[in-house]
Design brief:
about 210 residues; Rossmann fold; globular
């Protein structure tokens, strides 16, 4: 049986996977008494199968203990100086021959759409669809909290070639483009969602 880890999982925490997310809401929801105020409404409810863990700072997983690692729309929320740490941590927890598979926005797709568009507001469309811009500066206590802990904005965008370079530097090989459902492992069916793959960049690689 393969040991499987998913990080940046949000509320997607299927059985059979070790699921990590870095949201501080996990701590708040599991605190006695006050935890109920952070469940529902504006706060996503994290199932018991999701535990706290930050791939940049390091997750509580032993070295070379995992066969399969997955993340969906996570890496674009990291700053450039955090990507190296995240990929090295992913490499650390994987066994020799382990598989890392992920999907994230495809910068090449957005640029192509911008280039062929004839719309007068194409720059607005590009900034909004890529989540690279902000319509409003955060104001007030709640706005500042959301800005600091929400992580909704994209920090850095990637195409296949640039991400491949990062993966090679982190020690990965056999880097290829991936499509929904083509992993070769039935376990990935529990974490992959078709709607998160359309017009996006999927990549699969190995730890040698």
């Amino acid at each position: 049986m393969n040991t499987c880890v998913q990080y940046g999982c949000g509320t997607c925490g299927p059985e059979g996977w070790i699921n990590y997310d870095s949201s501080p809401t996990i701590y708040l929801q599991r605190m006695p008494i006050i935890g109920r105020f952070f469940r529902g409404g504006r706060f996503p409810v994290f199932p018991a199968t999701v535990q706290s863990g930050n791939i940049v700072k390091g997750i509580p997983q032993p070295d070379a203990s995992v066969d399969l690692v997955y993340c969906s729309h996570v890496l674009e929320h990291l700053a450039l100086d955090e990507i190296s740490a995240a990929l090295k941590e992913t490499n650390r927890i994987l066994k020799k021959g382990g598989t890392f598979r992920f999907v994230l926005p495809d910068l090449e797709y957005y640029i192509r759409e911008y280039t062929i568009s004839k719309a007068g507001d194409r720059s607005m469309q590009f900034m909004q669809s890529s989540l690279l811009g902000r319509k409003h500066r955060p104001r007030g206590f709640e706005g500042i909290l959301r800005s600091c802990f929400g992580g909704a904005e994209h920090m850095w965008m990637w195409d296949f070639d640039s991400m491949s370079t990062q993966l090679e530097s982190a020690g990965f090989l056999e880097i290829r483009r991936a499509n929904f459902g083509d992993s070769g492992f039935e376990e990935f069916a529990k974490v992959e969602e078709l709607g998160r793959w359309g017009n996006n960049l999927g990549i699969q690689c190995l730890k040698p």
